[in-house]
Amino acid sequence: MAALTREETEALIQEVLEVYPEQARKDRAKHLAVNDQSIEKSNKCITSNRKSQPGVMTIRGCAYAGSKGVVWGPIKDMIHISHGPVGCGQYSRAGRRNYYVGTTGVNTFGTMNFTSDFQEKDIVFGGDKKLAKIMNEIEELFPLNKGISIQSECPIGLIGDDIEAVAKKANKEIGKPVVPVRCEGFRGVSQSLGHHIANDAIRDWVLENRDGDDSFPVTPYDVAVIGDYNIGGDAWASRTLLEEMGLRVVAQWSGDGTIAEMEKTPKVKLNLIHCYRSMNYIARHMEEKYKIPWIEYNFFGPTKIAESLRKIAALFDETIQAGAERVILKYQSEYDAVIAKYKPRLQGKRVMLYVGGLRPRHVIGAYEDLGMEVVGTGYEFGHNDDYDRTIKEMGNATLIYDDVTGYEFEEFVKRVQPDLIGSGIKEKYIFQKMGIPFRQMHSWDYSGPYHGYDGFAIFARDMDMTLNNPCWKQVKVPWKTEESPKVAVAVGA
Amino acid sequence: MPSVMLKKNAEGKLVFYVPKKDLEEVAESVEFDSPERWGGEVLLSDGSKYYFEPQDGQPDFPVTLRAKRLDSGE
């Protein structure tokens, strides 16, 4: 199917909006836009980070998900207590595939679920005593933990427990960092505020721990990787490239990260931000307080990797700059071979994305390296500054949708008919049943890593095996049965 | 009275960031911008104006300062 023109795309948006009642239509219209690269600021064309409409199907999470699931959870040597009823912790346990090295239950705790399992009496009489008791039990059972964080679930804020006081007391008793995080799920409109709250908790309770302590030997090439959650091993694939070009990666935030790394981050020379949405807050704070500059980079696809490596190197001396060129050259034959193999199979295929706060724009380059085109993209919980950065990456007259509803996404897909959709588990089976190849772009569909040159090879292979899988020809979808002879044959056979 | 995070970008221009509004904008002009005195009206590239209480000497960028919003731009 040929690409839609600007008018057609605008008409499509109007058509999709028609079913809503007037008030909802007016609100949703602000969240849907046709990309126009000539626009400098996204707030002229799209509204984001607003409360979802009641009655529509949104794909967003909550502040607790942003703090415990994203920012704090991957810090492997701390124990993160899901403070409140048991469900939040259990259903978010180990779901995000943040890989780490260590012996789970001994010195690392990433895939375990610690919860205070609130009962009626805790809601009525408060849970502070229980929390204090849990922390003592943790110390006894898991003495190698390096600290505890208290991730509040909704009831904590509602009943007004003083977790800060409990944390301070426990900190004195056990002599390890104990961090209370006020990330109750009802705060904010999406998980985005949870990221911010988590960043603020790191700022207030962790970052200053080693101020004035110069025992950590520094080099002029120290950097921190911030906002890489090591999903499927992403941070490792990124880290090797940085180390090969001569930099020393002091800290990983927070995939495969430790609290000691976080405490040392104020000593680095440069902060590298991958997930801008979830961790720009702490980078901006460190810039102001410790005068550490930060830059955003993108390790998806060889074009963006080379661009990013050079951008990072430009902030260091010639040895690093030469190192960047050396790294790019070293992997060139590898990624050229990947492109030579998969580009002919994927050329011209059209992709629609709907992911969280970073990938809707970051993976565009990787698809383009494979000759594919991204025709629609959107963020679950992006803000205006994310859309500012997206407009430039996307082609003209492509669709942009913020906090898209289940209905809108389906209608867009029916009309645009992309060859591939990249979104999350909640969308996967709907679109697969519609006969459209689908990849989960949150968890990499249990594959990965996708970052770095090594990741690009896996990315290309995965896209190919999804898109060119023969099973799609067997799927009977209503709009294909009559026109498409291939499907008709398959059905008749 | 938003808190504004100010920093200089690679070109030496002032970058204006208001965390609560996700407003990230380059400043077009600053009323007082000399080594002795800094502040006054700041015009952003999107047309909006903010006012900083003039102070002696350049602030140590990056820094967070309180600003007053003069108009909403267009």
Secondary-structure topology with pairs:
The complex is a heterodimer of chains A (493) and B (74).
Chain A: H1 6-17, H2 22-29, E1 32-34, H3 63-72, E2 79-83, H4 86-91, E3 114-115, H5 120-125, H6 128-141, E4 148-152, H7 154-159, H8 163-174, E5 178-181, H9 191-205, E6 222-228, H10 234-244, E7 248-254, H11 259-264, E8 270-273, H12 276-290, E9 294-296, H13 302-313, H14 318-346, E10 350-353, H15 359-362, H16 364-369, E11 373-377, H17 384-393, E12 399-401, H18 406-416, E13 420-423, H19 425-433, E14 438-440, H20 452-467, H21 485-492
Parallel strand pairs in A: 2-3, 2-4, 4-5, 6-7, 6-8, 8-9, 10-11, 10-13, 11-12, 13-14
Antiparallel strand pairs in A: 1-12
Helix pairs in contact in A: 1-18, 3-9, 6-8, 9-12, 10-20, 13-14, 14-20
Chain B: E1 3-8, E2 14-18, E3 23-33, E4 37-44, E5 49-56, E6 63-66, E7 68-71
Antiparallel strand pairs in B: 1-2, 1-6, 2-3, 3-4, 4-5, 5-7
